[in-house]
Fold this protein.
Amino acid sequence: MKIEAAMHKGARWVSPETTVATIAALMKKDDIGSVPVGENDRLIGMVTDRDVVTRAFTNGADPGKLTARDVMTKGIVYCRTDQSVQDAIQLMEEKKVRRLPVIDADKRMVGILSLADISRHASRERCGELVQAVASPHNPSTRRRSPAAQA
């Protein structure tokens, strides 16, 4: 199956100068966990709900004055409409991301492919493998230990 058939359409992006408060309100209104950031007609980053929490409220800055540029994850991992869902799954596993902006042949963002989208179009086993891959810690030193291991 091609990504174009599995993605959800209508995703939008914000400028790097958009305030974190505006992004959080957009996330709440649209019930989404990430917002792409674009500048000069190019995707330059992504603000996730985790970025808002870990970067806007833990660095000592005034969260009311922070913008997308201040908290976004720089660079962008994306997929194309004509790739297969399997290609996207491999990319998500490799990069440990839960959502991918989708661009078309004209390099325009036309949607987002999320874990939820994949869950509707891939086998239960494959979805489980993907969730396990993207949910594992990026940094092994931050991995939580089980209560038994702590004893």
